[in-house]
TrEMBL record:
This is Transcription factor RAX3. Coiled coil: none annotated. GO terms for cellular component: nucleus. The keyword Nucleus applies. It comes from Hibiscus syriacus. Residues 1-31 are annotated as: Disordered. The lineage of its organism: Eukaryota, Viridiplantae, Streptophyta, Embryophyta, Tracheophyta. One of its GO terms (molecular function) is DNA binding. The keyword DNA-binding applies. Its main location: nucleus. Residues 1-10 have a biased composition (Acidic residues). Residues 22-75, 76-130 form the HTH myb-type domain. Residues 22-75, 76-126 form the Myb-like domain.
Length: 290
DNA sequence: AAGTACCGCAACCGCGCTCGC
DNA sequence: GGCGAGCGCGGTTGCGGTACT
């Protein structure tokens, strides 16, 4: 036996911290006794608006930040853990698509849920559920265009669709002539930094010079092989409409029409990429305007 | 049965913001 | 206006349990 107490053992295992590295500050998992002390005190006296001073008042060898976290994420009343409902999944996905990883804002829309819980749920389950089911529902093999596009963007660490269009190795083998024209204009825009070129194929020549009309392409029943085809056309049409009409609020309605009958995960994914693409595009327009 | 890989989650860390002095 | 303390947040870490080989 080393003679180490449990608390010393915990401290040794977790090391010292820079934030709360005062002597006698315990780290690591909370014991039931510590939980009970903190809970009882806050229920009786409140936090007093000063977390830093709290542990001293209670007699806990913890830093204020740790107490705050423990209370907010675990001890405060009406906290729910696990068992996320389908409705909660929808809210989380929709908000994530709209505002990104603003977990505290997302948590504010879900009573009883904490930002930490939602963050963990998204990172460990929901994201996989979304991607996993999409893969399953479409019977897409692992190197599908959309997946490669997504992976590529993740690796790039930026939401820049041009980086995809500049890398032919990532493109699918068989693409529609209209898509080819779009890609060419994307490359041209990427090389000279003029986003207006993006619109040229549609603005100058809305009808593709081949057997299939634009209308046919947009018909949902022609979207069956989803992947890149779907993404490019939805995104280009959306940019086209946004640029011309400035009807910001029409994205949802537009997507609902175009993705009618698609699995929810597929809708989330498409909306995600369109919003990211549009945000990036808007940034480019701002730069040009400057 | 033992070793290893993977996963989920609680807790920590560090940055940026706010507010009071 | 400058400064520091405290707070809130998002990202990351690492432990413990489980699945897999």
């Amino acid at each position: 036996m080393s003679g180490e107490t449990n608390e010393e053992e915990e401290e040794r295992r977790h090391g010292s911290s820079s934030c709360c590295d005062k002597a006698n500050v315990k780290k690591g998992p909370w014991s039931p006794e510590e939980d009970a002390k903190l809970k009882a005190y806050i229920e009786q006296y409140g936090t007093g608006g000063n977390w830093i001073a709290l542990p001293q008042k209670i007699g806990l060898k913890r830093c204020g930040k740790s107490c705050r976290l423990r209370w907010l994420n675990y001890l405060r009343p009406n906290i729910k853990h696990g068992g996320f409902s389908e409705e909660e999944d929808n809210i989380i996905c929709s908000l994530y698509i709209s505002i990104g990883s603003r977990w505290s804002i997302i948590a504010a829309q879900l009573p009883g849920r904490t930002d930490n819980d939602i963050k963990n749920y998204w990172n460990t389950k929901l994201k996989k559920k979304l991607l996993g089911r999409r893969k399953q529902s479409n019977n897409i093999h692992s190197n599908s265009a959309l997946e490669r596009l997504q992976l590529h963007m993740q690796l790039q660490g930026l939401h820049n669709p041009f980086s995809f269009y500049n890398n032919p190795a990532l493109w699918p083998k068989n693409i529609h002539p209209l898509q080819d024209k779009m890609i060419q204009s994307m490359q041209a825009a990427a090389s000279n930094g003029n986003p207006n070129l993006l619109m040229q194929p549609l603005l100058e020549n809305p009808q593709p010079a081949n057997e299939q009309s634009v209308g046919d392409l947009y018909d949902p029943k022609n979207f069956k092989p989803r992947g890149l085809k779907c993404w490019i056309i939805l995104w280009m049409e959306y940019l086209h409409r946004m640029t011309r009409s400035k009807l910001q609020g029409e994205l949802d309605e537009f997507l609902n029409n175009k993705t009618a009958g698609y699995p929810q995960e597929e809708k989330w994914l498409i909306k995600y990429w369109i919003v990211q693409g549009h945000e990036w595009f808007k940034g480019k327009l701002d730069l040009v305007a400057d």
